[in-house]
Amino acid sequence: MKLGDFELTVLSDGTFALDGGQMFGVVPKPLWEKKLPADARNRVRLALTCLLVGTGKHNILIETGIGNKFDHKFVDIYDIEKSTTLPADLKKAGLRPEDIDIVINTHLHFDHCGWNTRREGGKVIPTFPRARYFVQAGEWEHASHPTERDRASYVSEFFRPAETQTELLEGNEEIIPGVRVEVFPGHTRDLQCVWIESEGQQACFVSDLIPTRAHLPRAWITSFDLYPLETLANKQRLLPQLVEQETLVIFPHDLEVPWAKLAEQDGRIVAWAVDSR
Q1: Are the C-beta atoms of 49 and 41 separated by less than 8 Å?
Q2: CA 20 to 30 Å from 9, out of 28, 95, 237, 257?
Q3: Mean pLDDT confidence for 149-164
Q4: How many CA atoms lie within 13 A of 175 on its CB side?
Q5: What is the pTM (predicted TM-score) of this model?
């Protein structure tokens, strides 16, 4: 999709599944399963969406999926399906890992930074050898020393071997002209969303602040969120802005609609899909 002078491409690293109760927190199952049906183990299937931003000068990758550095037990728990991979989708887009200049991780949960690194022989090395990686300093610190509550969400070999290429941010910051990050605490203390702006047009990779269209209702918040009341406050603040500014919204985990415009109907925020022209 063209966004002003930029080109946006949705890339996939396959799909995985998480417990539906965890994905919808206090929302009763009879409500959420109308949006995302659960399997026999109460899991809902989710996309692993990454976004490629071509500016003409830089190739920027937002998120890197779940990767391939896991065992059979991990595959069984999360029902990982690899109909495609991020490297394969990059190749379809005409790019090699060496062509990526910038990687932005909204946070470091395992389903957002899996391809930050790859295995080569007996080592784990950065997947994108020329790239600068950007993440919030607070997120890096927390990922390196997680709590008992969220330890399972972080896998150190997914991100730590790229440490020498990683630049730690302290709050809202412009990465390059037209691409900036804004911190929205809630899912984690230092979750950052990514704004992309060119020629008066705007897109926002909302990350797990709004993981799917089903999470557009303000109180539909995952139980993974460490600070759910902050998630609620940030959704109350951000959603009207996205509607008013006709922002293209990119969801990280929506299986059917990776990007959409939002509108208000009868007091509710709804999404309508846009084509890629």
Answers
A1: no
A2: 237
A3: 97
A4: 34
A5: 0.97
